[in-house]
Structures are given as C-alpha cells and as structure tokens.
Amino acid sequence: MRARNSFLLVVGLFGVVAAVAAAFWFGTLRAREESLLQGHRQLQLMAPDLQSVLQRFETLPFVLARQPDLANALAHPNDPAAIARLNGTLQTIQQQAKVGALYLMDRNGLTLGASNWDQPLGFVGKNFSYRPYFHAALRGHAGLFYGIGTSTSEAGYFIAQPVYANGSAGGPVAGVIAVKISLAEFERTWSSSDDPIALADRHGVVFLSNREDWKYHSLHPLREATLAELNHTQQYTGKNLTPLQQTPGPFVTLPVGRLGWQLMLFPNQSRVTRVGTLWALATALLLAFAAASLWALHQRRRRMEERLASREALQQAAQELESRIAQRTQQLSETNQHLETKYHTLQQTEHMLRSTQNELVQAGKLAMLGQMAAGITHELNQPLAAIRAFADNARTYLERGQPEQAASNLVHIGAASARMGAIIGQLKGFARKDQNVAAVDLAHSVRASAFLLESEFQRREALLDIDTGAGAMIVAGDAVRIEQVLINLLRNALDAVETSPLRRVHLILSREDGQAVVRISDSGEGIPEQVAAHLFEPFFTTKPSGKGLGLGLAISSSIVQAMNGQLRAYNRPEGGAEFEMRLPLQTEGGTI
Ligand code: ADP
Hints:
It contains 13 helices and 17 strands. 54% of the residues lie in helices and 17% in strands.
C-alpha cells in the first residue's frame, strides 16, 4: 500500500513537472508567435515611413541637374563667379529642402561646389570618384548609396543624378549632382521601442539601429570579396565590420528601399520568457488548486464514509439494545405476571389463612367452652345436688320443729352457693370481647386456671404443683386468652401423665430478664421426635377422636405471639415435657 502510494506520488509529481514545463513551452511559443506577429505589424507601420523619406528626395537631384548654374559651373570650373553662384544656389536649395548636403562633381569626381562650401568640413575640392553612386550617375543612371561621409564622418543616404552639358538628357554627361540625406531623425524614432530594431544593407551590415552597439556590425560573418568591395567604396569608412557578439533571437524583417535593405525587428525575448513563466505559474496554481480540491473532496468523502460507518455501527448498537430491552421487558413482564399471579394466590392464601385462623381461634374457644362447660356442669352439679339435699333436709327439720338443724343446713346451702358463684365468675371472662388488652396479673391467671382444673386433676388422681412466687406479675394482654392458654397447657400435661405411674404436673411462674415466664412440666413420656416438628400445627393430634382436636397448641401459640410473647416446648433431661410461655413484663409505667 505504501509502495503503491509513493509510486503514485512520484508519477503525480512527474506529471506536475511535465505539465508545468509544457505550459512554459506552450506559453513561450504563443508569446513568441504573438510578439513576431506584433513586430511584423510594427514593421509594416515603420517601413512606409522610411520608404517615403527615401523617395521624397529622389527627384531633387534630377530637377537640380537642369539648373543652368550647374551646367555653367561645369563649363567654367575656374570661374570664381560661376562657382560662387553655384554654391549660393546649392546652399539655398539645401536649406529650403532641408537635406543634409547638396554638391556638384565634375566628370573626375572632384567637387566643384557644395551647399556646405563655407563650412570647415565642406565638400568643395573633395573627390568622390570611388563612390558607386558617382559612377552610376556618370553612366546616366540615378545613383543610390548609403555610407559614412569620408569628410564629415556622418552617415547618410546619397542620391546622385547626371548633369548634362546642354542642360537636358541625351547629351554628354558633364558632371554629377548628389544629395545627402541624414536618416538620424528616423533612427531616433526607434529609441522608444523595447525591441531591438535594425536596418541592414544587402550584405547584412547593420547601419541604423536603436542599439548603438549593433551599429556597423554584420548579422553574420562577411565574405572576403564583400569586405574588399566595402573597403573600396569606403561605405562604412573607419568602421571595423565584425559580426555581432551575440546572435539575436527570432526576428521579423521587411525589405525597404531600392538597395536591398532589410528593416528588422527582434522582439524582446525577456517578455516571451515572462509570458512563458506566467503560463507555467498559472498551470502550477491551477494544478495546486485542483489537487487541493481533490484532496478536500477525498477527505470529505472519507469523513462521510466514516460518519456513515459510525452511524451504521450506532444504528446496529441501538437495534441490539432495543432488542435486548424488548427481550428484558418481555421477561420482566412475564416475571411480573408470574409474581402478580403468585401475589394474588398469596393474598388469597393469606386471606384464607387469616379467616381460617380466626375460625380456628373461634373453634378453639368453642371447644374450650365445651370442655369448660363440661367441667363447669360437673362442678356445679355437685353443689346444686348438695343444695337440694340440704334444702330438703332443712324443710324436714323445720317440720319436725328442729330449727337449729335447719339453720346449719342453710349455712351449708350458703357455702355451696358461694362455690357456684365462684365457678360462674370464671365464666364471665369468656363472655368478654376479644383482644381486651389490659394489665393482667399472671399469678392470678395461673391460680384461676388451676382452680378450674382442680376437680379434674383430682378425678384423674394427678398432682398439680403451683409456684407463683411472691407478688403480682403484671403483663399486657387479655386475661381470658391467657387463661385459655394456661388451661390448654395444663390439660395437655394432665393428658400426658394419664398413663404414667407418677402423675405430676408442676407449674412455676418466674421473672427473667424483664419477662414473665410460666413453665409447665409433667412426668409424662415427653414429646416424641416425630411429634415435635408438628406440635404447633393446627389439627395435629395424637389423641383419639372425640378427645382432642389438635387445635390447642396452635391457638395458644398465636395468642401468645399476639401479646409479643413466645411459646416453646422441649423434653426435659430427667423425662417428661416442659412448655415455656414468655410474656413481656409490664412495670407501672409500661412495658419493660
Ligand atoms: P390436642 O390436645 O387436642 O391433641 P394440642 O394441640 O393441644 O391438641 O396438642 C397436640 C399434641 O401435642 C397432642 O396430641 C400431644 O400428642 C402433644 N402434646 C401436647 N402436650 C404434651 C405433653 N405435655 N406431653 C406430651 N405430648 C404433648
């Protein structure tokens, strides 16, 4: 991956360099073409100007040749008056026509008169027979020439015409009239141009240019013959015509004049390079911008992809979570339903249990009442029978007139009634309402219960020992219910000792850690192991039907618990069972 990336990078860089180089090349090419085109246009504007300058004065020597002063001077070269006239005429015309110089030569090339006759470097007396224009004119043609003046050292364009002896063409040529025109003015107009401009002759020698160092140097090396010819005509007298130091770049050229001249323009290459550089720069910028855009696009796409991926992951996570929540909710609702059903069942069960318990308590009470009723009936029957017997005997004694005997019987009747009253007094407690919580003296309850069962113990030849200790033992509770519990425990103990050789039940009331404790032990066989587990269950009994309901301990236990107490049973090491009832003691202020 990394190798691939670096390969791509190298290829990309190479591509960028190639594109920039191509842009430079293309820009340069375009700029060069453009500059050449522009240069050509410039030349096309310049060339006619030059052309018109050259042509403007072509007729001047032709017209002058017909001046009688010229022929006259040629006819009389030694006549000072004729020469003076000639000089005057030439000077006047030169000044009027605004040309460089006007001068007349005889057939030998000797200058007879000139417009600059009065100047130190005047042409008068100079021989110009070596100049080609002189020879051309001598042969009857117009002579054209450009060169540096041998006397003035000033360059100029020379136009020569033959002067005929009889003043008109056809006769013998008496002399040559020449005009010299300066092109310096024209050259000056180029100075403002940035591009090198040059005017070169047919040999390739630059003689006019806005580059001073180009002047009088050839564009290419000159042949020996050419150099010899130039030397002979002294065209560029005093100049060493070496080739240009540096070869100029591309150029445009236009032919000008009648001497095979070339007007040349060399477009500035630095501008071309500048344009090329601009192209390259623009391309580089464009590429950089494209690369940056691509990079940004790539980054954006990557970010989008990442975002999409993370969104997908999130969605997946959310879906998983949702399904898990749904699952859990389902489970919970199922559990809830289950629990509700269970709770409902429990409620029903509890309700049933409560009602059953109440019913049981009620039934227990009724059973107790039944048992008590039997006991009471038994207890009441005896005094009642005694009262009847004493009453019958008392009436008999009264009929016999034995009132003392009768009175003693009435005392017995009173005692029996008192006993009955006591028994009935016990019954009052059962008539009271449930949960009649009050301060109860446990010692009193013990005695009352024992009293109720006294005759039964006697009948069954069992011994009941009671030890209530000294003083009252106050607990908070219902006296009737406490007695119900005590009677039940004592009766169970009595049942337990039934078959024992030694029938003995022992009740001890004591005070332990702020609690009142009643312990009822018997000399029976104790509680068998299988019975112990079910001792306090309702309807559990080992007794024959009709004798026990199996409710006694269950009811007793609930009664004791309702009074914040405890009821427990265990076997004594020395034999027999012991039942222990604990109830919180109450002081004068309240419960301890
Ligand atoms: P019931 O007396 O009607 O049987 P209880 O609930 O009072 O009902 O007693 C349940 C059973 O507990 C008795 O049937 C008996 O087997 C056992 N039991 C109660 N007290 C004693 C005791 N002192 N010694 C041995 N067993 C006892």
